[in-house]
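Take a look at the protein record below and flag anything odd:
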Amino acid sequence: MDSFYLYISNLIVVVHFIFILLVLFGGLLVLQWPRLIWIHLPVITWGFLVELNGWICPLTPWENHFRHLSGEISYQGDFIGEYILPLIYPAELTREMQYSFAAVVLLLNAVIYYFIWRNAQKNKI
């Protein structure tokens, strides 16, 4: 049963990582499929607010809970722990870094949405 909890905690980390990628690059999907904007805009808002306010994403306590149930303390020897977790949870994370992440979310998506808006304007003409 311990391996089941470890599987669930790792699955949550993967979902968390995919969510972060969606926050950062989901606008590129909107370029291809414009209706995804209604999913992407709330995702951007949540990602921005989490970083700006220093909130903890609800996925984090779930992942920690299942990792605890599995009996695992460290991530040594695990691909997810070795490569994905440090991207999501940098060891030296500071409030200034979180502000920078929030700015990156806004700037990156502003550029992408500028191109979305520009394409929409071209298609109207």
Residues 74-79 have pLDDT under 50 and may be disordered. Residues 2-124 form one domain.
